[in-house]
Amino acid sequence: MNRLFSWLSDRLKLPPILHHLLDEAIPGGASWIYIFGSVTLFLFLLQATTGTFLALYYAPTPDHAYESVKFIQEEVPFGGFVRGLHHWGASAMMAAIGLHMLQVFLYGAYKPPREPMWIVGVFLLILTLTFGFTGYLLPWDQKAYWATQVGINLVGSVPWIGGTLARILRGGAELGALTLSRFFAIHTLFLPWLIMFLIAGHLFILRRVGPAGPWDKARAKRISEPFYPKQVFMDAVAMGAVFLALVVLVNLFPAHLGDPADPTDTTFRPVPEWYYLFYYQLLKYSEGPWEPVVTFVLPVLFFAILFAIPFLGRKRERSPARRPIAIGAGALFLVFVFTLLGLAMKETAALKKTDPAVERGRAIYAKLACAGCHRIHGQGAQVGPDLSFVGDARDRDWLIAHFKDPQALVPGSIMPPTRLPEPELEDLTRYMLSLKKG
Amino acid sequence: MVNDKSSSSRRMGGNKKTAEVTRRGFFGKTIAAIMGLIGFGLGIPLFGYAVLPTLKKREEPWSEVGPLELIELNRPKELEVVRSSSSGWMKSNTVRSFWAYKKPDGEVVAFSPICTHLGCGYRWSDADQQFLCPCHNSVFDLEGKVLAGPAPRPLDTLPTKIEGDRLFILYQEFKAGLPKKEAI
């Protein structure tokens, strides 16, 4: 290894490059607080790698997208692992970017001469959010379909140009094949080039202006340490920890794949990914004249302020203690976001309390292949009655009696008697009763 | 603390046994260990993910042809069979044909419809009681043996089985032009 290195090094003249890459001075010395940028970059590379491999088995058309994701998840060796890493990696990347921005804000590291780095950073944030939005649709399950429907309709509510924007996003008048292939192309071809270009810019600026270091200038001058080995060591430990955490998460909570997208099922309630959840909660409180304010004015204002942050204060003071307005505003924003997030999580937790008996009943319905004759929300054959809203039409006693002896209640029925033990019969009935309008 | 210049000169040539050097060594080894861990933790699953499905032996399913009455005694007929095949998440049906007849002892003989010479389709001629391949004049008898022409081997037989009164076939394709029967 060493001999190979010196052989290459002789020819390619590596020492100056290594010196340039690794010996950059960190003012104030290495610190655990600086790991977030590296962790974000690591997560981006992880997303790029897992995403590239996912594309091996993925088909971006409505008639195959869901099946191909199911194939990855259930049949390809390590498929659940690769998809899970990509799924949780996206969330981890959002968290890492949030912490990275928080640290930069707290340290006043966006102040001159680092304004360009901050601006490129905000563009990177927007790109990452777009990655999240376009990637969400690709599994083409119910959640993907309906969440994207809501997202595009939000864009559609923008005054004057909203309708046109929504059509451009959808690739036409309705959410379908053109939307999926368009989102796939944006997610896997357009955005990666763009983000790599901007990441390179972000890092280029960092190397031109140097890291900011601690806000105490005297301290920054007193101590200086090269990037290698201590900062690289800290970054590596952080990356290793994040990777291990992701592996544990993927094994404990595999990426979910719901029912296939069904445009006719209006009972599905989409809940967005957690990093959009606070905004989703805000939308619930906005009615009537407030709606365009929340769907349009607020986001535009938010990103405008984000871009303007380096230019809002004239002073070069970086110590948080001497920037009460900036730190106060930032803290207020965080309290606001986390309150909304907390409220949203409380409400969705209440929403998800589906009866386990209903879930067991749904499993029995699938096991007995009832869909071979009956239809529920567009799924299944149309030989027997449509059961989409059977809970409104029949009561418990009727259903149980009918399962035991269909012909006794419906003369001439071709439905076979359901020979099930009492508890399973009860579960199946509970599932039937849950099929109601509204 | 180390300043910029002395640390780089140490890495390039110096081998002074100072505390600084062993500290560098510890950091360097830990970094390499963590990177190796991530590399293997990611590399092995990704390799399995990309490669293992391609090594899976394709399992050819038995295809149902139809009732046994379709087959006549010592008189080959061209029959069609719907063969289901799957590629990844895609399942599709393709129609293939084959030649079959019944021997006096009840055994069913089935031939692949492809001439063993260059892969043309051949025909049974009732008048000649022979299989004739028109392209290059290969001739086979009822047993599939080569009687004349450039065909390098007898007609390829296909495995058949009978369940009740239904005939099943294991459809396969073989490489043409070889003296030995070899599945594609």
UniProtKB/TrEMBL annotation, chain B:
SUPFAM superfamilies per record: ISP domain
InterPro entries reported in the protein's UniProt record: Rieske_2Fe-2S, Rieske_2Fe-2S_sf, Rieske_Fe-S_prot, Rieske_Fe-S_prot_C
Entry-linked Pfam families: Rieske
Domain Rieske: 100-169
Residues annotated as transmembrane: 31-52
UniProt-recorded Gene Ontology molecular function terms: 2 iron, 2 sulfur cluster binding; metal ion binding
GO cellular component annotations of the record: membrane
Keywords: 2Fe-2S, Disulfide bond, Iron, Iron-sulfur, Membrane, Metal-binding, Transmembrane, Transmembrane helix
Cofactor requirement: [2Fe-2S] cluster
Matching PANTHER family: CYTOCHROME B-C1 COMPLEX SUBUNIT RIESKE, MITOCHONDRIAL
UniProt name for this protein: Ubiquinol-cytochrome c reductase iron-sulfur subunit
